[in-house]
Amino acid sequence: MRIAILAHEQFPDRAKTAVGVLRYGDQEVVAVLDRDSAGTTVGDHLPDVDADDVPVVEGVEDAPAFDALVIGIAPIGGGFDESWRSDVRGAIEQGADVVSGLHYFLENDAEFRNLADEHGVELRDVRKPPDDLTVADGVARDLDCEIVLTVGTDCSTGKMTTTLELVEAAREAGLDAGFVPTGQTGIVIAGWGVPIDRTISDFTNGAVERMLVERADEHDYLFVEGQGSIFHPAYSAVTCGILHGAMPDHLVLCHEAGREAIHGYESFSIPDPGRVADRYLDLAENVAPAELLGGALNTYELDDDEADAAIEAYEESIGVPAVDPVRDGAEELIEQL
């Protein structure tokens, strides 16, 4: 499938979905839409991805032919920016499906719904959970597979990226590994999953458990994409729900080098990562004890020497091996398994 990705004024730093799809998706990306960076290529911004020659254009009318438009931005609150409307409208009128991970459902937008019906295209709101979710049965630890969960000191610390890098490294090491997506970007990449931050709170644990039960017979190792942070003033509930629903055997703690405060909530400081790791283990203990497998540190803003020093300090703080999974790969953490 050929796709275009909408990432206006956010690419690449605040366009997590766009970057995730470019780095890990198996779709053919023909263009990224970003008014601020039009005239460049993806490689000018993300030299480490295979799609380095993909053009960045101003709007859908400037993009090569595509089958679907993916909204590649996941803003706080998941709202729809009206400045995107003309591109979504244009994509539908060209006969392309639209894939969205927003809390704002495109299928509930009268203009988009009517246009989609008129042009015979699909509006796919991937953040819409199944209607038949239930509470957890508490059976994840009984499944015949090892469960690894990524957790974080904050949102946007690389949990999805780390999870996918772990899956890739595990498969390269000969392990039978599967990816369990819990957020909109992971769902777009994998083509399945439950958006945990959209579930009824009583059903959060059960939604994670259901995905594990569905995949446990297919893989020896399941790597679960984490969300949020137990220290986050807005998103801690989803983090705890995933932790207790997944009942993981192992945790990988994700952090961004140099980040000292919660992104978007800068009056809330991030505790020392070692303390964060201890709290995750304490929180898991009475439901299903876990061990800290390793750490993942985002060193994107650092040069090689600074990154090495930051990883060494991070390892000292959390007491287990750590890597930058994008810069260095995740092989060292897989060796811990």
The fraction of residues in strands falls at: 15-25%
Mean pLDDT level: 96
Count the E strands.
Answer: 14
Structural class by SSE content: alpha/beta
Structure description:
The chain is α/β, with parallel strands linked by helices. The chain folds into two domains: 2-125, 3-Layer(aba) Sandwich (Rossmann fold); 140-336, Rossmann fold (3-Layer(aba) Sandwich). The protein contains twelve helices and 14 strands. It has helices at 16-24, 42-45, 85-93, 110-119, 159-172, 184-190, 204-215, 236-246, 273-285, 304-318, 325-328, 331-336; strands at 2-6, 28-33, 56-57, 68-71, 97-100, 123-125, 146-152, 177-180, 221-224, 250-256, 261-262, 265-269, 291-298, 322-323. It has a six-stranded parallel beta sheet, sandwiched between helices. Helix 10 (304-318) links the parallel strand 13 (291-298) and strand 14. The longest helix is centred in the C-terminal third of the chain and has 15 residues, at 304-318. The protein is globular, with a radius of gyration of 20 Å. The mean pLDDT is 96.
Defining key terms:
Rossmann fold, 19% strand, six-stranded parallel sheet, alpha/beta, 34% helix, 2 domains, 337 residues
Show the helix and strand layout:
Layout: E1 2-6, H1 16-24, E2 28-33, H2 42-45, E3 56-57, E4 68-71, H3 85-93, E5 97-100, H4 110-119, E6 123-125, E7 146-152, H5 159-172, E8 177-180, H6 184-190, H7 204-215, E9 221-224, H8 236-246, E10 250-256, E11 261-262, E12 265-269, H9 273-285, E13 291-298, H10 304-318, E14 322-323, H11 325-328, H12 331-336
Parallel strand pairs: 1-2, 1-4, 2-3, 4-5, 5-6, 7-9, 7-10, 8-9, 10-13, 13-14
Antiparallel strand pairs: 11-12
Helix pairs in contact: 1-6, 3-4, 7-8, 9-10
